[in-house]
Amino acid sequence: MNGRAKRIFFGIAMVLSLVAAACSSGEGVTTSPATQPSVVDTPELELNGILATKDLSVGANRIAFLLTSPKSLVTIPTASVRSVYLGATEAVEESVTAEFYLWPFGSRGSYVTELTFGRPGDWRLDIDVLEEDGSIQSARIPLNIRETSITPGLGSKPPSAANKTSRDVADLKALTTRSTPDPDLYELTIAEALETEQPFLVVFASPALCTSPTCGPQTETVEELKDQYKGRANFIHVEVYDNPAEIQGDLSRARFAPIIDTWKFTQLENYRNESFVFIINSDGRISSKYEGYAAKEELEKGLEKVLG
């Protein structure tokens, strides 16, 4: 097996093991993803890049990605990122630094940064990390930027479609796959939260049935923030599935909650049940948007921005 073949083999094996380990660390029963994350590998590059955010559009975007080497997940604290527009000639549009955020359980994490795309089309991320020995290792990740995002975008008013609350059920297990639901997250509908004219955070996730390693930890993180910001902001969890108590670990029985269609998650390519978090300001507009796992530090920054 030549050098390039070895890099491809070990890179793909590393990605598959990360996804399998992450899903097994969540709550309840997990299922295999419909598709595996795309792995970018070229002969001259040492690292594989895995894009964690797919709903990208013209304007400001939060970008999250993982980096793997043939041996392990890359956890160097920062990475240099350049956005490259792939027009008639390649042009570097922006250069930023991405920070590494460790996920719960301490074995996985992703790099996060913000980039602004001025036009739709094909783009690429060129990523460099500085190793302890002074060497630089690189990865590339292709992007497709839409004119507008599929799910509600920054600055827009979120759909006010009703989500179920504790007033609609006799048992919280009918509202969520979370094994120990926090009642505070099921008191308000999104429409009611908008009427309070107070900032609020809403997380869409299926804690026990996630097909990616994000939903259970993300809901737990939101619960922590709810206690931290009690009285200053409202917090809502919306279960992805409309019938959590009936599923019993078998996703063939699952029905998406109607609100999941209203927010257009099901229009995302290969969407299963991956987590999303939105922070809405006191004017009722989306101030921050997080696809996939967002660390507590990230969400704190978003909340402080709307609380001022």
Descriptive labels:
four-stranded mixed sheet; alpha+beta; Glutaredoxin; single chain; 308 residues; Immunoglobulin-like; 11 strands; globular
Strand order of the largest sheet: 1-2-5-4-3-6-7
CATH superfamily of the largest domain: Immunoglobulins
The stretches of 5 or more residues where confidence is low (pLDDT under 50) are 1-43
The DSSP helix count reads 6
Q: Biggest β-sheet, characterized?
A: 7 strands, antiparallel
Which percent bin holds the helix content? 10-25%
Instruction: Specify Rg, calculated over alpha carbons.
Output: 20 Å
Helix and strand pattern: HEEEEEEEHEHEHHEEH
| Domain module tally | 2
Overall pLDDT confidence: 87
User: What is the second-level CATH architecture of the largest domain?
Assistant: Sandwich
Strand fraction equals 25-35%
Shape: globular
Briefly note the structural class of the backbone.
alpha+beta
Number of strands: 11
TL;DR?
The protein is of the alpha+beta class.
What does this structure look like?
The termini are far apart. The chain has 2 domains: 3-145, Immunoglobulin-like, CATH 2.60.40.10; 166-307, Glutaredoxin, CATH 3.40.30. The longest helix is centred in the first third of the chain and has 22 residues, at 3-24. Mean pLDDT is 87; it is low at 1-43. The strands form 2 sheets. Strands 1-2-5-4-3-6-7 form a 7-stranded antiparallel β-sheet. Strands 9-8-10-11 form a 4-stranded mixed β-sheet. The chain is built from 6 helices and 11 strands. The protein has helices at residues 3-24, 190-195, 215-228, 244-247, 258-262, 296-307, and strands at residues 48-51, 59-68, 78-86, 90-102, 109-117, 121-130, 136-145, 200-205, 234-239, 276-280, 286-291. The protein has 308 residues and is an alpha+beta fold.
